[in-house]
């Protein structure tokens, strides 16, 4: 069969037309293994989604309901959800099956088996079943019922942490936009949403013990707009919406720098006790918490305590980047205490990789955001931390930053790490990217979207798509499946799906969009 490999002779080959790809070849992220075999299953008016026999957890039923909801629109079929394993004469369809014994499928893997009788999704965990459902969506046509080709997909992720970050501090976005992004992430098997909740320009999360943080510190944003903030119920709603889609929320309170909004709300958080004006520009590195003041740590404890109570996920991200106004010794002393607070509230520390040059606490996860020109010593500090047992999430700015312009014509975005055209987002290997940080030390990949220049949903999506899909594939697919000519054909095949969901995307010239 014709496949994306027609273009596998290098970047000069003419991009393969997406029309020649089979549904299996179109899957994005590319699965670990596919065996096409025999005739497929035709979806029709009688298709039922079955969520297992007696003893099947309620969670599986929920996954079935959500999958049915996601398939009804595109297929136009009723797709009722039924309990019970189904039997002869029960009609055919999709079966969701938990198999605790399928050890080879790991924490998030699945098997999708298609015969003329139906499609069986098998996983060891509910997360795996959810991912299987997302694969099934892609095996059906963009519109209409269609036939899932016969065969077996067996698929497990390369990295456990597959994330995206949104910056709702530079520009405020409503929780609905974050939920929309969760849907988009989950569709491509990403499982983490990191929310940058605070920065110099705005404090976006309600903290009961320090109400002026959100009330006053939230009422500003880059460019002087009104800003805004999320109530605790907003945040809870996002967390539960994400959990239903097997996405974990990682909240970030950026410290000890990036705190002007907090200090504008509470002058006691500065060393001289005077509240600065709110800030609506785009400079970084000018603010710092007062490291020598005990009141600072009451603040840290209250904020992280309330956030920990709202957050079921394991991580609290405490920032730690660009603390240019905090002397190195103060920085290390502050981060020691902040990390202890995270631990006291039962969470694991995540921080930007600058923490590597201080004293990362046992278990702390470092998020690397350097680039090709980052000094070797800075990379070496991260490698040393990896040797000491810390795991690293990779967000190299010149590959993974979704706020970098594609090229000089891109409207929104920055270019301090250079332009990131679509192929550049894809063309790096997370398993060997940082010198002396071997693959087992890499927890995963995250694609941050900073919003100094982004204030609308259209611009957000334009910057994220298609590069987010490339990063999703780097995070999920086996290294052996990574190949730009094949990948760009898969990207092209996603174009009509993005269109059908009204997702704005950049028609990158390197991709053979239909
Ligand atoms: C660097 S990346 C920052 C952010 C900016 C971003 C813009 C990082 C940890 N800090 O404060 O928003 O660049 O690309």
From TrEMBL:
Its EC number is 3.2.1.52. Residues 159-478 form the Glycoside hydrolase family 20 catalytic domain. The keyword Hydrolase applies. Residues 26-155 form the Beta-hexosaminidase bacterial type N-terminal domain. PROSITE patterns: PROKAR_LIPOPROTEIN. SUPFAM superfamilies: (Trans)glycosidases, beta-N-acetylhexosaminidase-like domain. Keywords: Glycosidase, Hydrolase, Signal. It holds the Pfam family Glyco_hydro_20b. It comes from the Bacteria. InterPro entries: Beta_hexosaminidase_sua/sub (IPR025705), GH (IPR017853), Glyco_hydro_20_cat (IPR015883), Hex-like_dom2 (IPR029018), HEX_bac_N (IPR015882). It catalyses: Hydrolysis of terminal non-reducing N-acetyl-D-hexosamine residues in N-acetyl-beta-D-hexosaminides. Gene3D superfamilies: Chitobiase/beta-hexosaminidase domain 2-like, Glycosidases. PANTHER family: BETA-HEXOSAMINIDASE (PTHR22600), BETA-N-ACETYLHEXOSAMINIDASE (PTHR22600:SF57). Belongs to the glycosyl hydrolase 20 family. This is beta-N-acetylhexosaminidase. It comes from Streptomyces racemochromogenes.
């Amino acid at each position: 069969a014709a496949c994306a490999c027609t273009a596998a002779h290098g970047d000069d080959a003419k991009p393969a037309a997406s029309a020649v790809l089979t549904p299996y070849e179109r899957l994005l992220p590319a699965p670990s293994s596919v065996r096409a075999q025999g005739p497929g299953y035709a979806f029709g008016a009688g298709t039922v989604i079955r969520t297992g026999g007696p003893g099947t957890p309620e969670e599986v039923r929920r996954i079935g309901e959500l999958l049915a909801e996601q398939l009804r629109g595109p297929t136009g079929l009723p797709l009722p959800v039924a309990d019970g394993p189904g039997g002869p004469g029960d009609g055919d369809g999709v079966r969701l099956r938990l198999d605790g014994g399928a050890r080879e499928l790991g924490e998030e893997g699945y098997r999708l088996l298609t015969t003329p009788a139906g499609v069986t999704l098998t996983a060891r965990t509910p997360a795996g079943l959810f991912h299987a459902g997302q694969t099934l969506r892609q095996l059906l046509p963009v519109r209409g019922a269609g036939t899932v080709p016969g065969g077996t997909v067996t698929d497990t992720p390369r990295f456990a942490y597959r994330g995206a970050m949104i910056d709702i501090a530079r520009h405020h976005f409503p929780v609905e936009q974050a939920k929309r992004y969760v849907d988009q992430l989950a569709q491509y098997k990403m499982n983490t949403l990191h929310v940058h909740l605070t920065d110099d320009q705005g404090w976006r999360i309600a903290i009961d013990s320090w109400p002026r943080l959100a009330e006053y510190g939230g009422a500003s944003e880059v460019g002087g707009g009104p800003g805004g903030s999320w109530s605790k119920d907003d945040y809870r709603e996002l967390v539960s919406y994400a959990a239903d889609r097997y996405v974990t929320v990682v909240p970030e309170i950026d410290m000890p720098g990036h705190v002007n909004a907090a200090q504008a709300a509470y002058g006691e958080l500065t060393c001289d006790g005077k509240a600065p004006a709110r800030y609506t520009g785009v400079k970084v590195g000018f603010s710092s918490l007062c490291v020598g003041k005990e009141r600072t740590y009451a603040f840290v404890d209250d904020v992280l305590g309330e956030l920990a109570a709202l957050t079921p996920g394991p991580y609290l991200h405490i920032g730690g980047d660009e603390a240019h106004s905090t002397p190195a010794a103060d920085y290390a002393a502050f981060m020691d205490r902040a990390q202890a607070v995270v631990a006291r509230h039962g969470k694991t520390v995540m921080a930007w990789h600058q923490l590597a040059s201080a004293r990362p606490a046992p278990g702390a996860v470092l998020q690397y955001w350097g680039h090709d020109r980052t000094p070797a010593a800075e990379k070496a500090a991260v490698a040393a931390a990896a040797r000491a047992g810390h795991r690293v999430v990779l967000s190299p700015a010149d590959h993974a930053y979704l706020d970098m312009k594609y090229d000089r014509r891109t409207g929104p975005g920055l270019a301090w790490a250079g332009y990131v055209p679509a192929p550049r987002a894809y063309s790096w290997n997370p398993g060997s990217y940082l010198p002396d940080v071997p693959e087992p030390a890499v927890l995963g990949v995250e694609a941050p979207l900073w919003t100094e220049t982004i204030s609308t949903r259209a611009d957000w999506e334009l910057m994220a798509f298609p590069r987010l899909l490339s990063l999703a594939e780097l995070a999920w697919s086996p290294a052996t499946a990574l190949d730009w000519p094949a990948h760009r054909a898969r990207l092209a095949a996603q174009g009509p799906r993005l269109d059908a969901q009204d997702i704005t995307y950049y028609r990158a010239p390197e991709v053979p969009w239909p």
